[in-house]
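ok, trying the design again with the full structure, not the truncated one.
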């Protein structure tokens, strides 16, 4: 099967591209390399890589022609980043998604798998968070990811195209970038590897659903292969881990012992998050296969190999 992976040079997209190549698909990656890198693709053979923008309708149509599925991951990613530049966030995440969907329809692509985010839910009103949980986006990023979902679902209703939206919880694993916008695992890893104490905001008892990037890649493949359309699925591990527990697991794996530094809680951060993954299990056959300890051990050995 010929597939297009937008954002395929990024953290998650490179793993989706790799999973598709490994099972024998012909894969084209489209990426503007704003945060992605060639390094992320160096271990993946037989990839066609095109540098370009998801908002470029001529380019996306040219790449979509003849493909069976588009995995749409290209995005401006991050809550804080979106607060600094909401226009860019909306342009790439909303207009870019509309462009991908329009090109997919015009080029008779069978399916688009859209990468959404648990950020669309905001503070959880109940746990675990299932697909019917109310959405209350608390950043421009979350607004744009929700808008992308709505467009993907509307396209499936209005045009002859199948779309599926996957709402990822807290994804981690090899190739995850470290920047001022990074999430807690790469930030902890960076500090611990330099012998610096991890900074924990608040009491550390806030919880997250950390899910390995390998399970996210597997969910993408399952979604593309399924016959479902117009559906959203929560994709997490189904396990709730506190930031304090994460710190313990990471320190044990990295063989360090450093007392954490507690900073005041950060405004706008949700207290608890946990995915109900039963719908994805029932309909897609999704079953997370990587434990927190196993996933962190893999991340640590990747870091030790020099990333
Ligand atoms: N990392 C997470 O925990 C997480 C959680 C929920 C959802 N997501 C979603 O998963 C997807 C991938 O995120 P990621 O964590 O791998 O981030 P990432 O920044 O590593 O990947 C995004 C990729 O898109 C590319 N890109 C950005 N703008 C582009 C444009 N205009 N045209 C072409 N390419 C462009 C970047 O260069 C990068 O390679 C995103 O859609 C994001 O919203 C990520």
């Amino acid at each position: 099967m010929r597939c297009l992976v937008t954002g395929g040079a990024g953290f998650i997209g490179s793993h989706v591209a790799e999973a598709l190549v490994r099972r024998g698909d012909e894969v084209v990656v489209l990426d503007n390399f704003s945060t992605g890198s060639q390094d992320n693709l160096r271990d993946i053979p037989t990839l066609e890589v095109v540098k370009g923008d998801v908002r470029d309708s001529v380019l996306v149509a040219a790449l979509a022609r003849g493909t069976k599925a588009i995995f749409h991951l290209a995005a401006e990613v991050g809550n804080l980043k979106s607060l600094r530049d909401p226009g860019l966030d909306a342009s790439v995440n909303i207009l870019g998604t509309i462009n991908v969907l329009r090109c997919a329809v015009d080029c008779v692509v069978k399916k688009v798998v859209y990468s959404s985010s648990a950020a669309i839910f905001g503070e959880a009103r109940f746990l675990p968070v299932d697909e019917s949980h109310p959405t209350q986006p608390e950043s421009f990023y979350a607004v744009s990811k929700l808008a992308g979902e709505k467009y993907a679902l509307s396209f499936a209703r209005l045009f002859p195209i199948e779309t599926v939206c996957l709402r990822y919880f807290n994804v981690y694993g090899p190739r995850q970038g470290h920047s001022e916008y990074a999430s807690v695992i790469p930030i902890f890893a960076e500090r611990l590897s330099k012998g610096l104490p991890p900074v924990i905001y608040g009491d550390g008892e806030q919880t997250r659903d950390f899910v390995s990037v390998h399970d996210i890649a597997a969910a993408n493949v399952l979604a593309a292969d399924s016959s479902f359309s117009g559906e959203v699925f929560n994709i997490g591990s189904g396990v709730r881990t506190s930031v304090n527990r994460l710190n313990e697991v990471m320190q044990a794996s990295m063989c360090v012992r450093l007392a954490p530094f507690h900073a005041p809680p950060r405004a706008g951060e949700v207290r608890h998050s946990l995915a109900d993954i039963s719908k994805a299990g029932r309909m897609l056959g999704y079953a997370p296969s990587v434990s927190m300890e196993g996933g962190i051990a893999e991340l640590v050995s990747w870091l030790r190999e020099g990333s």
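Keeping the full-length input from now on. The mean pLDDT is 96.
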